[in-house]
Amino acid sequence: MADVARVAGVSHQTVSRVLNEHPNVRTETRARVLAAIGQLGYRRNLVARALVTRHSRTLGVVSFDSTLYGPASTVYGIQQAARNAGYFVSIVGLRSIDRAGMRDALDYLAEQGVDGIVVVAPQRSAARALADLPAGIPVVAVEGDHHGDVSVVSVDQAEGARQATEHLLGLGHETVWHVSGPSDWMEAEGRIVGWREVLTAHGRAVPEILPGDWSPRSGYQAGRRLAGMDEVTAVFVANDQMALGVLRAFAEAGVEVPGRVSVVGFDDIPEAEFFSPPLTTVRQDFGAVGRHSIELLLRRIEAGPDAPRERLVASPLFKVRASSAPARG
To answer: HTH lacI-type domain spans which residues (predicted)?
Structure first.
């Protein structure tokens, strides 16, 4: 820092203010210091900085199964938001989130001195595992249990399902069948709740749920069953990958979409608009989830141990494409 100060023609304290982004530095002075830093190849010692400030400028993220579109996109949104806020991210990926795995992940991140932790916790088992939180570290859960003691950021899953079901009923379909996600996932539960609420409110029959596991194969298996049922004219599928499997099964069985059956998915994966036909679906704004998560976590870091529990909910967006159409008369 002394070398930078000498080259820039400023004091050691001015260099320190620039590095710490202090607002009371003139623009031209800041530019001169940054130019000197670049000329000398100066690199900040983040370990030393953390010892002095007691803040590592690093946030921890605990997630699992990054091959699934939803969790992977959520983690990416968190990373981008953290970077924009000037933080590094340390990620621990787990095959499944249980109490033992969660405890090990949280201990590992605590030992790294992270300032706070975001846990992507869409499963009931993950929400239960949040009972063993390390003392003194702010934690925010994404898609977690809203009834616990941890602050939560989520997408309104029930509202997305309501939009999908209302859309299909509005097209003249008598009822809507549902291919669900795994029973342990709170997202799947929320989508069932929204779907059932709309059918009940309209006085329509609530068909048997066909369970899936988020994979195209499970959607394909459900689609083969649905293809043999003449009364089926509309299907709401709990994610786009399963909807792809449903569309494949219908195509093999000669069931026209949307001629005979309309299909709606959930997530709006990048490939959804290129399905055959392009998929009507519910878009989750994972960028907003990431921003909300980091904003909430930084508030908790700033407020300290007495920070109030908060819940932030992002709204879904309904995307109409060619896989849904009015029911045949």
So the answer is: 1-53
